[in-house]
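As agreed, record minuted below.
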Amino acid sequence: MRETALGTARNSAPLVGALRAGFEQVGGGVLLAWQVFTRGFRGRIDLGAIVYQIEHIGIRSTAIGTLTALFAGMVLTVQFGYFMSKFGIAYAIGRVLSLSVLRELGPVLTALTVGGRVGSGMAAELGSMQVTEQIDAIRALGADPVKKLVFPRVIATMICMPVITVYANTVALLSGAVVAKLVYAISFSEFFRNAVDSAQLNDFTSGIFKSVVFGLLVAIVGCYKGFKTTGGTEGVGRATTETVAISAVGVLIADLILTQLLLTL
C-alpha cells in the first residue's frame, strides 16, 4: 500500500510541477502588465521609442497580415458558398462572411499570425539582452527596464493590432467578393450590400476591442518570456518557441471569454 502511494506521488509530481509553473507564469505576466501601466505613464514618455516600435511591429507585419486575410477570405467564401448554394441562398454569402470576419476571424487570425511574429521577436530581442546582462546594466544605470523596454512595445502592439485587423478585414472581404463573383456569379454590389446590411457597429467594435486585448496579451507574453530567459542562446530559442505557443493558446482562451462577455452586453 505504501509503495503504491509513493508511486502515485512520483507520477503526479511532474503534473503538479507543470501546474505550479503555469500559475507562476500567469501571475508573472499579470504583474508585468500591472507594472507597465503603473510605471510607464510616470514621468516623460519616450514617444520616439513607441513610434519606432510601431514601425517595427506594424509596417513589417503588413505582408503576413495581407496573405493571411487574402486566403482566409477566399477559403471562407468557397466553403460558405458551397453549402449555401445547396439551399439556394448563395446570394447571402456576403452576410455570413462579413459577420464571421468582423467578429471572429479577422482579429483572431491576425493575432495568431502577426502576434506570433511580434511576440517571438520581442522574446528574442529581450532574451538576448537578458542573457548578455544588458538589462542588468540598464538597472545599474538607474533606469527602469519595464518603462524603457516593455512599455513602448506593449503600447505599440496595442495600437498596431487593431489597425492591422481593420486592414485584414478589408482584404478578406475584397478577396471574398472576388471569389463570389468568379465562382458563384454574385455581383460586387450585391455582395457588399448584403455585407453592409447584416453588419452592425457592435460587430465592428467588438472585433477591434478583441484585437486590442490580443495585442496586450501577445506583447506581455513576449516581454515576460524575454525577461525570464536563461541559458544563453539555447534559452533564447526556447523562450521564442514558448512565446509562440503560449500566445496562441492565450489568444484562443481570451477569445472565448471576450466573445461570451461581448454577447451578453
